[in-house]
Amino acid sequence: QVQPVESGGGLVQAGGSLRLSCVTSGRTFSASAMGWFRQAPGKEREFVAAISWSGANTEYADSVKGRFIISRDRNAVTVYLQMNSLKPEDTAVYYCAADSRRKYTGSAYISPVEYDYWGQGTQVTVSS
Fold it and tell me: Could you tell me if 102 and 32 are in contact, meaning their C-beta atoms sit under 8 angstroms apart?
């Protein structure tokens, strides 16, 4: 099945770091914008970070600016989310999303409606 696959989640103490990865199986989104979203229990899914197809443009939620870094590899097949200085409020399921409908746009989209392919998510738990 064509969808992004996340990995790298886990349990970490506050102040620690994790790096999430997102790869696509059977399909490449190298020309597409990609995003990370998260959903905590009882809360709505929220935007975390996004990156344009080339990696030249990025967007971050205010809550993660200065702590998280989104990037993609040279072939733009894998997207990463480096999470530093983690806080208990970062605890959530993290989802990778891809926009397959537009190519080479140069935009990094912050709204979930801009994405049409979603991964299953990876759990991140930050203990205090």
Answer: yes
